[in-house]
Amino acid sequence: MNQTGNRTPDQGPAVTRTTLYRGAKFDFELVRYPGRGGTTLERQIIRHPGAVVILPLLREPGRDEVRIVLIRNHRIPAGTHLLELPAGTREPGEPPEVTAGRELVEETGYRAAKITPLGSYYTSPGLSDELMWAFVATGLEPAGQDLEDDERITVEVVTGSELGTLIDRGEMQDAKSMLTVLWAVRKGLLTGV
Q1: Phi and psi dihedrals of 177, rounded to 5?
Q2: Which of 13, 45, 6 is nearest to 123 (CA)?
Q3: pLDDT value for 46
Q4: What is the mean pLDDT of residues 173-179?
Q5: Which of 12, 56, 63, 107 is 20 to 30 A from 153, alpha carbon to alpha carbon?
Q6: Are strands 80-84 and 110-122 parallel, antiparallel or unpaired?
Q7: How far apart are CA 19 and CA 130, in angstroms?
Q8: pLDDT one-digit tens code per residue, 54-67
Q9: Alpha-carbon distance 66 to 64, whole Å?
Q10: How far apart are CA 47 and CA 32, in angstroms?
Q11: Measured between alpha carbons, how far is residue 25 from residues 57, 60, 75, 80, 96 in Å?
């Protein structure tokens, strides 16, 4: 186990961290910090290298309406296949834009001519420090899917109105995907949803 103590002005009181488990994609830590009454409090948290989510917009010859490339991904923790935007975890030191390009090809089989950032957000700040960067991918060209051994992913391409219906019916339950779609709509990058 690794113990560290650190504090920055925006983190509040001094914190002691003990790594309980180092995983393939994230670490599990025990964090100790002073409570308001002077007691020492403990929380277990997940340390995450960060991730990306990509909204791939496909313009096809002969079609006026842009279409959205989705994936149906088998999620072991949820015990089901979820309809999602492609996403993935950053490699150590990897810029988020590079992760987005890599994950787009791996999961959808499309390569983007342009990847535009939408912004970033914490996915679950009550239990993890995972920061997720959202991107819009355009100028898509087929490149061939390159799935990892543990991925069971199929690609589905829908119109904006079909995507809106999927969200309204609860057929898309993935929060990162819904937030990214909302963000793109609010910025005028996606219409008809």
Answers
A1: -70, -45
A2: 45
A3: 96
A4: 96
A5: 63
A6: unpaired
A7: 16
A8: 999 998 888 888 99
A9: 7
A10: 15
A11: 28, 36, 15, 21, 15
159 Cβ contact list (under 8 Å, min separation 6): 65, 67, 68, 192
Longest dimension (CA), the chain: 68
Helix axis angle for 160-168 and 175-186, nearest 10°, is 130
